[in-house]
Amino acid sequence: MANIDSVKQALRQRATETSSSPRQPLSDTQYSAGFDTLVRGSGWMTYEEFIIPQLSQLLAPLSNSRIHISVLEIGPGPKSVLGYLPIRLRRKISRYVAFEPNGLLAANLEEWLCSTSEMESPLPCLESPPDIHRIPFDLNNHTGSGTGISTSDADEKYDIILFCHSMYGMKPKHKFIERARKMLVERPEGGMVVVFHRDGALHFDGLLCHRTASFPTGVVRVANDNEVLDRFAAFMAGFVMQEVEEQKALRVEWRKVCRALGHREEAPLDHLSFSLPNVMAAFTQHATALPELMAQMPLLKGNKTVKNREARLHHPASVVRPTKVRHVQQCVLWALKHGAGLTVVGGGHSGHCLWSNVVAVDMGAFNRVRIFTAGADGGDSGSDSGPFVVAEAGCKTGDIVSKTMAAGVIVPLGARPSVGAGLWLQGGIGHLARLHGLTCDAIVGAVVVSVDSSQLLCVGRVPSQCQPAGAVRPENEADLLWAMKGAGSNFGIVVSVTFKAYAAPTYSIRNWVVPLSNDLEARLKLSEFDNLVAMKLPRNCSADAYLYWDAGQLRLGATMFESSTTGFTTAMPTATPANAIWGPEDSFKVVDSVDLFETEMYMSVMHGGHGGGKTSSFKRCLFLKRIGAANLADRLVAAVKVRPSPLCYLHLLQGGGAVGDVAADATAFGCRDWDFACVVTGIWSRDQDGAEAARAAVRWVYNVAADLLPFSSGAYGADLGPDPRDTALAAKAFGPNRPRLARLKHSSDPRSVLAYACPLPGAPMAPKLIILVTGEIGAGKDYCAEVWVSVFTACTHKSLTARAVSISDATKGEYAAATDADMNRLLWDRDYKEQHRPALTAFYQGQLRQRPRLPEEHFQNVVHSAVDVDVLLITGMRDEAPVAALSHLVPDSRLLEVRVEASEVARRVRRGYHGGDDGGDDYKDSKDNKDSKSHNPNLMALDYRPCLVFDNNTTGNEAAKRFAEHYLLPFFHEDLQRLANMVRAVPCFPRPGIEFRHVLNISQQPGGLGLCTSMLQAQFTGDWAEVGVVVCCEAGGFVYASALALRVDMPLALIREAGKLPPPTISIVKPQSHISSSASNDSREKRIEMERDIIPRGTPVVVVDDVLATGETLCAVLQLLDEAGIGPEDVSIMAVAEFPVHRGRELLRRRGFGRANIQSLLVFGGA
Ligand SMILES: Cc1cc2nc3c(=O)[nH]c(=O)nc-3n(C[C@H](O)[C@H](O)[C@H](O)COP(=O)(O)OP(=O)(O)OC[C@H]3O[C@@H](n4cnc5c(N)ncnc54)[C@H](O)[C@@H]3O)c2cc1C
């Protein structure tokens, strides 16, 4: 499949060859029609799978720290991609300016953005109309306010400047980026210039990327139809001929080019596919910070090429080569200061050691290997006295092997001498693995530069001679050492590693090559190899197999390695199980660890030995069991048969033995249960690097990996990267350790300095459960919060983490800074705090007048500093109805308010004699303070209902514990997760940009309806005995309410569209629900009705609905109930799923239904 760039070149070339008449640029109509061929259909996939997720990820921190976002977009086309971002990001965009020189596209864009239909506007919170300039963005123009172009010096500034559809025609590109960078808002920092470019490479001279990503798998499919190809070809070439007849002739030629280069697929529709790689580069104010680093750092001299061909295609911003640990620390400090990422170069064998426009830190100067025989490590090795090997991070496998062997010891390493630190930090599978384990299992200590603080850290055993001055032991030392063993490229820049060493063995090596005449024989021989040879071997032996094609025939190569520390006699090989089956070996050798490298079958036997030498490779590795079983053996054979080039092969390295002795969660390398590591190896001739042959080999590797994945027990994390085809493999790497690794990554590399190492799952963006603990002063909120933290953390079978924080601490800090008050005493000294209470209240009120959104800001800050816990309890809240007001800010979390109630006597006693409960209410407004002095608990005075109320009138913590066990822990019940798993996510339904959650799908799953209704029954916080009727509105509500009514043995009250129920009825007008309004343009309001007198006045009811989104439906139901004489205080709402982003609770409260109790079984962050 030809790359789109080569198509463009070929089209231009053909025009030059066939016509000499003048060319003319495309008209607006021609450009617009061509653009359409590119983004339509499969081209949209690039948006869906790359541009939208990358943009959402980049904007998320910005959206968390800003109330509003202003955007300038360059060349958006007929619709802005921003309109397809998640709704919570779209709602933040308050200003939109664009440069779209194509008048037609600009008009479409304007119409689309200003859409006034019932469908939600793409950017619903714009504070002024979109400002679309119908001219190109150039290096001089200015955007002022209004619709025209201003030349005023007071240029408008933006939080985001987006080049979404490539930077073609903008030269030099870095000048455009620099121009845009100057248009970013300077304070607060965090604004970005973001470029998406339709091409594999995007090089910005001397500029530093904040983040970069690539999407190599993009494809565009164009209908194989003359007219469509004409539009496409003209758009790609960028011109047409002035002469009509010449253009006609050229069209024919262009169609031929497209058909010759496109990959044709006839079903379901006849079309041609072209590869359309895409890259993203994001720049901040710091894009010009490179010289600062280069001035203080040794740079790589000469043109060192790394081994990996993928990495070689990248153009790093700079490659620095630290020679001292201090230099590495300076790199990190610089990266932290400028929000930059870094890559680290070890042996250079992965595709991720160099990234375009990112600084690479080459560790090559750290190349010492030091050996500490028993007791020679300065007594730092504890009970296990060695021997140990300390290898610096620039060492290669070959360096370590040759130096240690000279001292009579060995570290179990891999099969190639040139491979570097990436191997031991991410696993390390070699011929001694069955005897001594993986390389990472031998790691007992490390010296690491923290990418959080740039501090030098020592973890585990590091001989005193190897501890650099100033190194400290981190608090999370055990975690970090654990992570070094299998995921070590993600948690800091490793300076050196201490390995446990073993006595150096010699090896006997035997090779067999078995020709395979057909598939059946292939399966039989693999089965023999697995069952009769490999499985029979003791731990000091391992057997590798190769499935490859040579001289027109499929072959099975087998190598048996036997290690011994007492030596072999070279004269006479002893018989092995393989001899009994395959006869005498083709070759037999006894070698030491250095010569072992050359005995690899790939190096010495297959394809005439190393494929002639000038080759490049791409590998992915899966862990397999029972390779001789028919289903697997057939797949392995089939894979080799469809290899795209003769040199591609499968390498099966034997595991088991010591690899499996280690528990999956004992080290970060969590895949332990396998017999063979299957390395799918794509090879091509080196002169084809970057060409179709290379792409085909890579595609083959991924296809085979995808085919084997369902039969595998894991994937090797080494070298997995951001390629979307790695996602499924990464999900199976690290076994059960992914959540722990994600949390550790978040805490050890919070600013993603090592953003390009093996991708770990993202840490949750917010705690799963956020509990706002409210109540009056002295009610015991802080005390209860701490008790509840202990209940969550003590619940060991769920291994939950929980923390309580006071939201008022931020204000106390600002008050202390402004007034010289003592912050510590404000936090801990109750009398001191009481003295300052009036001033603190006045200070807060003053701040609130200046920053009306302060409560939201504080809330978001508190939540975002606690993403490392499952449960966050927040005290010190001062907002009324905080769940209604704040839940849309944390749409992925369940937000609850638990109000702590206590009698005035109890509160007075606690205020007087206990130091615990201050709850931050110190600066509550006077109304609240007045309320707190009233005689009765304040519940009835509230115009809304807290989610839960805890009566804290008894002493001791038993009641609080029971409350948490009964009401709070059930939010982590596994049945809720089962239920959530039944809600299918459907992307782009009912329209692009919406990820539809199919909540009704629960009822279509076996056992789904029963599970859902039992949870509705169990999670109800009221008393079923007091409920009289279950109320529901068609259609979703009917499904769940009927089943629930049956279960709790209660009558139903049905609410239907007007005209469907017999008189007498009562009715009200109901606006459309969120999803129906997205699905259709029908904006008519509907009436809904209920039979009059079906519910006696004042009866407590439970309203059941499938979804709580905008709340319009529930408002209508509550209004109808109100008409029927049932007030909100008698209504409990139970929704199966809630989408807080639509602020349904807020609407209910605004419409006067705040006193209804609302509960949702599931909470979803999507739209
Ligand atoms: C020809 C070949 C043979 C191989 N043989 C084996 C084998 O026998 N057994 C096996 O298990 N694997 C093997 N591999 C896989 C190999 O382990 C990985 O490719 C590994 O990532 C290579 O590490 P490197 O240091 O050479 O590469 P690099 O690209 O330099 O590094 C790989 C990763 O580690 C990170 N990294 C490197 N140094 C540091 C550091 N000091 N601190 C933090 N991060 C760092 C890099 O940033 C990068 O993300 C082989 C690969 C190839 C290409």
UniProtKB/TrEMBL annotation:
Residues 312-504 form the FAD-binding PCMH-type domain. PROSITE patterns: FAD_PCMH. One of its GO terms (biological process) is cholesterol biosynthetic process. Residues 910-938 are annotated as: Disordered. The keyword Isomerase does not apply. GO terms for cellular component: cytoplasm. PANTHER family: BINDING OXIDOREDUCTASE, PUTATIVE (AFU_ORTHOLOGUE AFUA_1G17690)-RELATED (PTHR42973), PHOSPHOMEVALONATE KINASE (PTHR42973:SF25). This is FAD-binding PCMH-type domain-containing protein.
